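Please fill in the sequence for the structure shown.

STRUCTURE ENCODING:
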């Protein structure tokens, strides 16, 4: 990844195309949840089988995503974005058209292999085109379209009732159509990027970079603090919000399923608007680490409010909403500032290897703690151990965010890196 300087209009076109590609990609990522019930009723899938359709997304990436990051540095973001968008499309088609469970698993596996590397390459595109300014704003914008994709999947039963009335397959064909749109946006970006590279005679600079194994772990301290925060923060937020929060709201706070789901979805909806706004703010003031630390500290506070107060669900949801918008809006632009441009892909790949393992591990630990304590509507106190576990992880993550701020994110350091 090398910073490049096309016209502003071209750079904004690239940003729009990358954001559109992410919308389709995140739509497909979340597309199993709304058809889970239909898959069980119509195809006889068990809970474990449905769970596996999502688990196979993460499992290979505990190893493969590092290779993906290296590929981005070696071959450039444009080729990798196009190639992985193609793999995601094949995966989405295989999932929707497979006559049997094994075929669907293969489809989700293929999608997972493509999607995480696609995520890295889209961040690399924006770091490349907006290195001088607006990097946090454009990454925030692209992520906000991604969150809108996730929100759209949750709303798809309301938006496409006829498709859902016909069974499990039409909704997955809609997801495949989203993957096709994502591929088309990636292809348009690749085509523009080729013209930009040719015009700017950057071809030689963007040719394959040799990969040196011994450089793999050679990053500064700031990068490692960021990696630890990434693992702990995403493990808590994704394991809690995507797996256990709805059940927790029902059993501990007495909400019904619809109200619990709605409460959960506000966090994603808030992120659609707040993520680019926070990114814009960071770019304007030229400060990143203090915002990151603030967002990271809000997570344990919101968990404490949620666990300790029976009536504070709105307050804790709002605090998590701010954290969920602020931390990603700052983390990825900051990563692009603390590592060399030609090692950005490898750096994010390494972060996501540990992140994928952390998210998987946090899901297992939280599930085990709930089972061990017999957590249920009749025994809401059984969720206490899980909340302690998430609370401790989020406090450690916040401590590393504060250490990052204190050691590498002071005003003079950040303003110097801006110049
Ligand atoms: C940019 C960041 N993405 C990740 O951390 C991915 N490893 C996992 C994304 C899963 C949903 N597609 C984010 O989305 O904040």
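FILLED IN BY: designer on duty
SEQUENCE:
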């Amino acid at each position: 990844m090398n910073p490049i300087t096309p016209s502003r209009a071209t750079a904004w076109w690239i940003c729009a195309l990358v954001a559109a590609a992410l919308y389709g990609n995140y739509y497909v990522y979340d597309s199993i949840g709304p058809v889970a019930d239909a898959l069980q009723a119509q195809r006889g899938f068990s809970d474990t089988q449905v769970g596996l359709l999502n688990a196979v997304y993460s499992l290979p990436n505990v190893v493969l995503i590092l290779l993906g990051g290296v590929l981005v540095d070696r071959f450039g973001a444009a080729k990798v974005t196009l190639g992985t968008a193609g793999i995601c499309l094949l995966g989405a088609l295989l999932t929707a058209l497979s006559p049997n469970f094994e075929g669907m698993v293969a489809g989700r596996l293929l999608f997972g292999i493509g999607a995480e590397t696609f995520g890295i390459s889209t961040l690399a595109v924006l770091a490349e085109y907006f290195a001088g300014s607006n990097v946090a704003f454009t990454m925030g914008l692209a992520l906000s379209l991604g969150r809108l994709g996730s929100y759209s999947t949750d709303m798809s039963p309301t938006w496409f009732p006829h498709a859902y009335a016909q069974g499990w397959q039409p909704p997955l064909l809609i997801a495949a159509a989203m993957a096709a749109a994502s591929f088309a946006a990636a292809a348009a970006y690749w085509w523009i990027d080729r013209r930009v590279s040719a015009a700017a005679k950057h071809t030689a600079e963007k040719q394959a970079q040799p990969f040196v194994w011994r450089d793999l772990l050679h990053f500064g301290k700031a990068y490692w603090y960021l990696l630890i925060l990434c693992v702990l923060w995403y493990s808590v937020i994704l394991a809690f919000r995507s797996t256990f929060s709805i059940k927790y709201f029902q059993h501990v706070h007495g909400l019904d399923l619809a109200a619990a789901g709605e409460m959960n979805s506000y966090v994603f909806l808030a992120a659609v608007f707040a993520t680019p706004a926070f990114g814009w703010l960071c770019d304007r003031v030229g400060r990143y680490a203090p915002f990151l630390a603030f967002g990271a500290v809000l997570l344990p506070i919101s968990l404490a409010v949620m666990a300790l107060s029976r009536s504070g669900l709105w307050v804790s949801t709002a605090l998590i909403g701010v954290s969920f918008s602020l931390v990603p809006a700052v983390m990825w632009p900051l990563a692009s500032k603390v590592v060399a441009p030609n090692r950005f892909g490898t750096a994010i790949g390494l972060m996501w290897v540990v992140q994928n393992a952390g998210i998987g591990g946090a899901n297992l630990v939280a599930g085990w703690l709930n089972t061990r304590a017999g957590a249920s509507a009749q025994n809401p106190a059984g969720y206490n151990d899980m909340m302690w576990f998430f609370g401790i992880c989020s406090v450690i993550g916040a401590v590393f965010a504060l250490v990052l701020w204190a050691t590498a994110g002071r005003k003079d350091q950040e303003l110097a890196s801006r110049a």
